[in-house]
Write a structure and sequence with these properties.
Blueprint (H helix, E strand, L loop, with lengths): L6 H10 L5 H4 L9 H7 L13 H26 L10 H12 L12 H6 L17 H5 L27 E7 L4 H13 L6 E8 L6 H4 L7 E5 L6 H11 L4 E5 L3 E3 L4 H10 L3 E10 L6 E2 L5 E5 L5 E5 L2 H7 L7 E2 L8 E4 H6 L13 H11 L3 E13 L12 H16 L4 H7 L12 H9 L5 H7 L13 E7 L2 E4 L10 E4 L9 E3 L5 E3 L2 E5 L6 E7 L9 E4 L4 E4 L4 E4 L9 E4 L10 E5 L2
Parallel strand pairs: 1-2, 1-4, 2-3, 6-12
Antiparallel strand pairs: 4-11, 5-12, 6-7, 8-9, 10-12, 13-14, 13-16, 13-24, 14-15, 16-17, 17-18, 18-19, 19-23, 20-21, 22-23
């Protein structure tokens, strides 16, 4: 699912659509870029096509517009009302006060809870737009029982797997902000219903300042359910830490508020943590369809990763990796990154490695930060195939971000990059130049944490955990996107023998990632941009790089603004990009179609 720019991406989607995995990339609040970034990534859907789109898609679009206007309004407000700006305060103090008030567990068994009256009070009724509040079909959720049967999506071998008999119970921490009642309740019921009783110490709900406090309060009547409520919006990271701080069990399990645990989900997670407390483990995240709440099994061949833009993505395992697993299909999968919403971690390890970065706001970047931190500070991240939890993947955020989602995401991500990536952060700045302008606040506490824990350098992480991420060569002269105004050179999904084109820049790497090597190659993976004739007006193509092949050797020309074939008077030109692809024409410094710049240039 790497490339959103051209044919390659669509090939992926076609390949994966059978499992609805494209939805995973659209993740709303646990994994994916906030709406602005996604808007860029999906600019291939021209808005005109909406007139032919199914009704619910058109409606979703109109909602999106309304949402955008609302958010713009909120941003304006924030400018005029600085008291809306969030400040970190003494969370421990708040938690202690709250504990006195809220630490009374309810006395109703979960099976006895009056689901109907709880859900009916906020039920989506005829005539209402049931997408407007949650950005999924609330009516479908309201009509789905909390203890419904879902397909057991595990590998057959999981059903006979044995676990330690002395597993430690867990506290489940669920944070929420304006979650649909039926969805939140189903998350809770599935935890109780699909787990051995003695392994659930409690469920801690952290209400991150939802509009209606009773959404959470009413659930506190259930035995073993505790509810704490923030008195202002704190965001995912600080809310989770509040929940973790009052947790009584030795093991923490974080879930999103729109999940559904499947058969036997918990024991494989607890067993792995029991084996080594430094393991941080996630289930395979199945898909709950946002329109009809159908539960769909996800592929077991995915790992979490990212490009230099530092946006989470799912990487399909290589054929070699998949081959290796055929004899051990349910072995844990080491993953460079976790999606972030759902994982189990030993409480003392969570505390030892510094919980979360409490200066991160709302959402985004926290999964990147905890992933780097766990790996670099001597832990490990794993996906456990025998653990399956469904999650409602959405196409947009259901809630507004104080400060605007793009800004918050960039700030959080930059904090993670500054603390953990050493000089490799330069590649992030090359991929996302605007990140350099973001105010990222004080990171001194996180830097000293890294020193105290004697964490490994980012280079170790790249070499040992994520060798698949292509690192620009130290010897490269330039790297990144090759830009012409807002268009970028693009392989259009072609491979050896294929032509090149231009496509709107997305700065997400993939088909728009090139390096300019010291030998003069313009390189994409192991392919080099080659002229196909010494006469002007002919297309250039991608071919295997060959040492000394003068048809592949380029130089920066006209003060670095043009790309000229070193031994011929031919320059790379986009004039006929739409008709036949990029061509090599006689160099002409007056032509804008011959101007090219790299996002990261050493010269
Ligand atoms: Mn989520």
């Amino acid at each position: 699912m790497k490339y959103c720019d051209s044919k390659g991406y669509h090939a992926w989607i076609v390949q994966l659509r059978s499992n609805d995995l494209n939805e995973i990339q659209e993740e709303g609040d646990g994994a994916n870029p906030p709406r602005e970034e996604r808007h860029v990534l999906h600019q291939r859907n021209p808005l005109d096509s909406l007139s032919q789109a199914p009704k619910h898609q058109r409606e979703a679009h109109h909602q999106k517009e309304a949402h955008r206007q609302r958010e713009a309004h909120h941003q304006k407000e924030a400018v005029h009302q600085p008291q809306h700006v969030e400040k970190v305060h003494n969370v421990n103090q708040v938690v202690r006060q709250q504990q006195d008030v809220d630490d009374e567990p309810g006395d109703i068994e979960w099976k006895e809870f009056d689901e109907k009256s709880y859900v009916d009070k906020k039920r989506c009724t005829a005539g209402q737009d049931c997408y407007v509040r949650n950005k999924f079909n609330q009516l479908a959720s309201d009509n789905t029982k909390s203890n419904r049967h879902v397909p057991d999506t595990r590998h057959n071998l999981c059903k006979v797997e044995r676990f330690r008999s002395n597993l430690d119970p867990t506290s489940v921490v669920i944070t929420f902000h304006n979650e649909a009642r039926s969805t939140l309740l189903r998350t809770i019921v599935s935890v109780f219903n699909k787990s051995p009783d003695h392994l659930i110490r409690e469920i801690i709900l952290v209400d991150d300042f939802s509009d209606d406090p009773s959404d959470g309060e009413e659930l506190a009547k259930i035995k073993r359910v505790k509810v704490i409520r923030n008195e202002k919006r704190e965001g995912l990271m600080r809310s989770r830490v509040k929940g973790a701080d009052i947790a009584k069990a030795k093991i923490l399990t974080f879930l999103d508020s729109h999940c559904e645990c499947n058969e036997g989900w918990l024991e494989p997670l607890l067993d792995r943590v029991k084996g080594d407390r430094r393991r941080v483990v996630s289930p395979i995240i199945d898909v709950i369809n946002m329109d009809n709440f159908e539960y769909i099994g996800a592929s077991a061949d995915l790992k979490g990763g990212f490009d230099w833009n530092l946006v989470f993505k799912w990487d399909y395992m290589t054929p070699e990796e998949r081959n290796k697993r055929t004899d051990h299909p349910i072995d844990p999968i080491r993953t460079p990154m976790i999606a972030g919403g759902l994982f189990t971690i030993s409480k003392d390890w969570f505390e030892e490695i510094g919980k979360y970065d409490m200066k991160m706001d709302v959402w985004g970047g926290e999964n990147l930060e905890i992933s780097f931190r766990v790996w670099q500070c001597h832990g490990a991240l794993e996906i456990i195939p025998c653990s399956r939890v469904g999650h409602v993947f959405r196409k947009q955020h259901p809630y507004t971000f104080p400060g605007g989602s793009g800004n918050v995401f960039a700030r959080n991500t930059r904090r993670a990059a500054e603390v953990w990536m050493d000089s490799y952060k330069e590649f992030y700045f090359a991929a996302v130049p605007s990140a350099k302008l973001v105010d990222f606040g004080d990171i001194s506490e996180r830097v000293s944490l890294r020193q105290k824990l004697q964490c490994k350098p980012f280079r170790w992480y790249l070499e040992n955990v994520y060798p698949e991420l292509k690192v620009p060569g130290r010897e490269d002269v330039a790297f990144g996107s090759i830009q012409q105004a807002n268009m970028c050179m693009d392989t259009m999904g072609n491979f050896a023998g294929g032509t090149l084109g231009v496509f709107p820049c997305h700065f997400a790497g993939g088909n728009q990632e090139f390096s300019f090597t010291k030998e003069g190659f313009i390189r994409h993976l192991d392919l080099c941009v080659s002229i196909t004739s010494v006469q002007p007006g002919n297309v250039v193509k991608l071919f295997q790089c060959q040492d000394g092949n003068t048809m592949q050797i380029w130089e920066r020309y006209n003060e670095g603004t043009m790309l000229k074939c070193r031994d011929f008077n031919l320059c790379l030109d986009s004039q006929e990009a739409q008709m036949k692809g990029l061509v090599a024409n006689e160099c002409d410094t007056s032509l804008s179609t011959q101007q090219w710049g790299f996002t990261l240039s050493k010269s």
